[in-house]
Write a structure and sequence with these properties.
about 375 residues; mainly beta; Methylamine Dehydrogenase, Chain H; four-stranded antiparallel sheet; 1 helix; 29 strands
């Protein structure tokens, strides 16, 4: 009797061990998707931020902040010598033909994209915000929320070629490389179409009833498809770039302020202030789907594309938590100080316009804040 019980107990132990070993596999979560944060860094400094720009050719990353353009090595994210002389700069555009870089600021700063040496300053009117390099004419479009809505510069020498009256506030623009420029008209809920050679508005694609306040724009130039990333409702309105015909609408996160399209992967993307990055897959010119929603960090609402590595880069700033009873933070020097790379978890704050994702309390703040740079890839 006693010896006959041993095999049964041994069999029971083996069975229990086998069941226990299967439990973790059965409860493991489903794959999150191909995209994730593959690199990140942080930098303490002062001053507001807006757009981020990747120079995929010269391997530079630009972040206008305060009275300079912060410059980083695009591969290592190590800080380089900043471009000085900015007054309220927002973005950067690179003329890949002449090798010149330009800031959307007053005045516009023009520098050599390889040596980072300043070439000249260019006096412009309006209120520079977004900026675009248009390859068909090799010109720089400086976008402004007040007239003149677009100041067009020659990419070779920085001279002013002309201006364009859009009759609206432009936010982001994209060129098809064949003489057509498309512009988000944020306050008119529409997309403006510009003839790059004539510098004239040739049409307007209304988004009314589909999406309001387009803050980001992507363009599949090959298939003539526009992706208008809107605030209210938070959707991507996908339409024909030829005639503005609606193709479909897809949900995105809240607080978009930047987007684009990667022809290498046939994916559109939009960065949102709620800490998400929406990836939309274009399977065919008539088939679109949200492929993935990547968690980034709060207020990371602007983005850029590294076309060499197919990486999407987002930025945000995080205001340090005040000590109990401490006075408001004073304005400090705008020179950035390198910081270690701890986790980027926790709330962040972007020192920019309200209503673009996340709580308020940042408008007018110019004290120290941590700049977060996150690289998203597969």
């Amino acid at each position: 009797m006693k010896s006959s019980c041993i095999p049964a107990r041994f069999l029971l132990a083996i069975t229990m061990f086998a069941l226990a070993s299967l439990a973790p596999a059965q409860s493991s979560p489903a794959p999150a998707g191909p995209y994730k944060i593959v690199q990140k860094t942080q930098l303490m400094g002062t001053g507001r931020i807006d757009y981020v720009t990747a120079d995929s050719v010269n391997r530079r990353l630009y972040v206008p902040r305060g009275n300079s353009v912060l410059t980083f090595d695009l591969d290592s994210l190590e800080p380089l010598t900043p471009i000085p002389g900015l007054m309220g700069g927002h973005g950067v555009a690179i003329d890949t033909v002449s090798g010149h870089a330009f800031s959307s600021s007053m005045p516009v700063i023009m520098w050599d994209a390889k040596t980072l040496k300043t070439i000249k300053t260019i006096a412009v009117q309006g209120r520079p915000d977004g900026i675009l390099f248009e390859p068909y004419t090799e010109r720089i479009y400086v976008l402004s929320h007040q007239p003149p809505n677009v100041t067009v510069l020659d990419g070779k020498d920085g001279s002013i070629v002309g201006t364009i009256d859009l009759g609206a506030a432009p936010e982001q623009a994209a060129s098809d490389g064949n003489g057509n420029v498309y512009v988000d008209l944020e306050d008119k809920d529409s997309i403006g179409v510009v003839d790059a050679k004539a510098l004239k508005v040739t049409g307007t694609y209304g988004l009314s009833g589909k999406g309001g306040g387009p803050g980001g724009l992507g363009l599949d130039a090959k298939n003539h498809i526009l992706f208008a990333f809107c605030h209210q409702p938070a959707v991507a309105v996908i339409l024909s770039a030829v005639d503005g015909k609606l193709l479909t609408m897809l949900p995105i996160g809240n607080g978009t302020d930047g987007g684009g399209f990667n022809p290498n992967t046939m994916e559109a993307f939009s960065s949102q202030g709620d800490g998400t990055l929406t990836i939309i897959k274009e399977s065919s010119p008539t088939s679109f789907a949200v492929e993935q929603t990547v968690q980034t960090t709060p207020r990371a609402k602007t983005c850029t594309l590294d076309t060499k590595k197919d990486h999407i880069i987002v930025i945000a700033t995080e205001r340090p938590a005040p000590s109990p009873g401490a006075p408001p933070a004073a304005v400090v020097a705008t020179s950035p100080v390198a910081a270690p790379m701890p986790s980027v978890s926790g709330s962040t704050g972007e020192l920019g316009r309200p209503g673009r994702g996340g709580p308020g309390g940042w408008r007018g703040y110019s004290g120290p804040a941590m700049l977060h740079i996150l690289v998203v890839g597969q």
